[in-house]
Predict the 3D structure of the following.
Amino acid sequence: MTEAEQPLIQIQELTKVFYTDEIETHALSGVHLSINKGEYVAMSGPSGCGKSTLLSIIGLLDTPTAGRYFLNGKTVENLDFAERSRIRNQEIGFIFQSFNLIGDLTVYENVELPLTYRQKMPAANRKARVMEALERVGMAHRVRHYPSQLSGGQQQRVAVARALGGKPSILLADEPTGNLDSRNGEAVMEFLQNLHREGATICMVTHDPRFAKHAQREVHLFDGKVVAEEELKKLLQETSA
Amino acid sequence: MTGLLQDLRYALRQLRKSPGFTAVAVITLALGIGATTAVFSVVDQVLLHPLPYPDSDRIVKVSQTFEGISTGDASPANYLDWVAQNQVFAQMAASRGWQGSLSAGDRPERIRGTMTTPNFFPLFGVNPMLGRGLQAGDAQAGNDHVVVLGYGLWQRYFAADHSIVGRDIRLNGEQYTVVGVMPPNFSPDEYGELWLPSPWGVPTHPLAPDKDPRQFRDRNYLDVWARLKPGVMPQQARAELDTIGRRLETQYPDSNDKTGVSFLPLHEYVVGDIRPVLLVLLAAVAVVLLIGCANVANLLLARATARAKEISIRTTLGASRRRLLRQLLTESVLLALVGGVLGLLLAVVAVPSLLALSPPDIRQFKQIGINREVLAFSFLASIVCGIVFGLMPALQSSRSSPSEFLKEGERGSTANRGRTRSALVIAEVGLSLVLLVGAGLLVKSFMRLMDVNPGFDPDHLLTFNLGLPSSTDAVRQLAFYQEVVQRLQALPGVQAVGAVSRLPLAGGNSSRSFSLPGIDKGYSADIRVSTPDYFRAMGIPLLKGRSFSESDLGSSLNVAIVNEALARTVFPGQDPIGKQLTKFGPDNLTLQIIGVVGNVRHVGLDTAPHSEIYQLLGQAPWPSMFVAIRSATSDPTSVTSAAQNVVWRVNKDIPLANVRTMQEVIANSVQRRRFSMLLFTIFAVVAMLLAAVGLYGVMSYSVAQRTKEIGIRMALGARRPDVVALVVKQGMALVLMGIAAGTTLALGMTRLISGMLFGITATDPLTFAAVVALLGAVAFLANYLPARRAASVDPMVALRYE
């Protein structure tokens, strides 16, 4: 397989078990997943199915209990904290449901923040990247504002700018519309669509089928396993019965 | 660098954003750093700085030893032999305290000067700032009426007159020419107002000023100073002095029996036994600072919970642990530096107050203050504090897992912080208990000390010192003091007046050797020369026999009154009245005991009374006497100006010196103990309050965290007292652990202050119990307030809120 054909993300037999006191909770059980470069994937499933856990592992915020995880062809499941921080900073852009902007930092500083963790990046480059990202989301005129002075939609656009500023290999979005009204939610989805059209790789967690349809491919999770759409419907029916 | 500036900018913003947190943290740190800096400024100057003389570590104070213990002084003949026989000292000089009256205007002033050998200044390596020092030619009869002024006297009495050199001044009614003025801060001992030579080269004996002192081998009154030759090690010098001492012992068995030579480095001599006191105080104040740091760490841990989201976002965006640590430590160090600057300002204000409280052996270090070293210490202490209190919260924050936060919101990893905060409170309670026990022991010691019967009645007593020139003969001495005492006695409101050569608890002592008829054994006792009514004036009880009377002056019999301690030691089971003491002093007098008086604590309230012999003024000469006036009024100082006028009517050149009530004399004698007790108590109370604030903070936070749980409990039927008990129990468990740890630590640590205690042991159970009760009560209050708040939770609101 050439590098161009190689999946950006490849996950094999991934398992995640949480231990609390004497109780074992299997959040993920033998998950297989591949995401190619430029692909737009939506992960959906009922509450507690393991979507966010899988996204955390993909985002190197958490480590699997077992299984393999290749990012850009390199195994990343057993990296130490520092190396995971570096890869997160350079390869992954996050968009959260609750925006997760830092209230004490201005719009500019929030977008600049991940770039300040990159060593040896000249200040001029940093500034150019920040302004480019903010212009892309239409927030360049709000650089001196604090998050509390922005609407929810504007805050999410700043969060997207922050994710884009680092020019990541993949954007991970965790319920990006969850805290937005439908109009702003639609706007964000449209924006992600545009980014995808421009070649961005996106992996989005959502429980809303309307937004999942924006993706190229939908991955369904149930009880920590990847299941086909038909099987998911059957399982959901069984559960409700 | 850019990153650091960013961190700094962000840290400043954080401090501005939470003014309440910043204020509490900065004030806590300022108190700790300020107090530590103030105490360090004293330690720095007293213990760490070399004395202000070139190569001061080569200067030593030499003295005789008796049975291996230093007497602190030396006789002129021994001194001259040491000078002649040693090969280890580049120079040796001898001096003695000299007191006299200086008169240049209407009012004479009592001066404390030094009579010295001419090489005194060269030995210390200090040149006069005006004129010259003493020269060999000055130490000859006829040339000896020259004087070098101390800087303080020159400033105070002569208004810093630069043309003073060459001018004549009157000392003890005689003319002296000023030949020089010494620079500021030159005063190797407390007699630094002026220096003058002796016509014999070696300082004369104060009671025999006209006699050639060079032959005196049994009159020890000289302070001897020496400078080690370059390359000579102290051990080498000690060995040679031992040899010289043994040689002189063999050569002069009568005077030098069991007598040797030893020396102390000058710094050790000057600092004396204040060193352990200062070190204990520095340790105590450092503990206060540590408790302050623990409090700020606790505040930071609480804030870290509030900032968990921010830290998680930063981690998610790729901040490494090191980078997070750097940012968080930048914030804590900045906080500490702001506290440090404020602390430094506090120290600037506190140092003068500290010095005002301090005993004279600290106050003599005139340069104590905020200097470069103290600034550096304060800066360093701030940085270290910032790291100490910032590191643990920073480590915990940087270790928190971002995925946990993303899943659980702000609840992630707070349990661990709770444990750390509890551990910090336990440590705070434990450390404050150690300080409180220390303070309790010192307070109890002090109270015990003040309960000691000094052997006289100190109330309604005014005392002062009068000094006649040492050249005044015995007849004129007697006439002067008799007339002064008589006239003072006639003043309205005066009940009794007496004079004595050495006032109890005022410093200074004199002793003489004596024997008993037909017995070869030698004895030694402290001697006092007094007027007949001295015992009545002081309220010293006459236990047997009679007191002195004027008629004893006409008798050829030398009479003596001894104290109870001497009677018991020298005449156990016998009546000492009528017994004789022979070979008394250098003149080998025979004294007959006519009375026995009660013991007086002369050296200190904490020192057992020595054997004492009182002689009658007139039968024994003494030029400088302390006068004690027992007044009928409640304020004995009301007769001060009348007393001064009386003295001036008798001799216009004699000023009243050291005018104090006897209560002031006592207070002065316990100043060092009061100083350490007071500071220790202040530190301990601050430590206790900080620990209480820390406990209050932890419990308040815990209550806030448990609002939902408390709401559920109340919804299920818990009554308010149940909730109060629940919270108080949790807090008091921490307190009990702190008390247990602190008690164990205190049992070991209080041994360090055992040398500062009087009348109690370092493990005094009552003090421990009282401290535990006090700390427990304060801690209970710190627990009760949050508990009461918890009990006022409305279960509906609490459940809805969550």
About this structure: Chain B touches chain A through 26 residues (CB under 8 Å). Residues 2-46+273-449+673-801 of chain B form one domain.
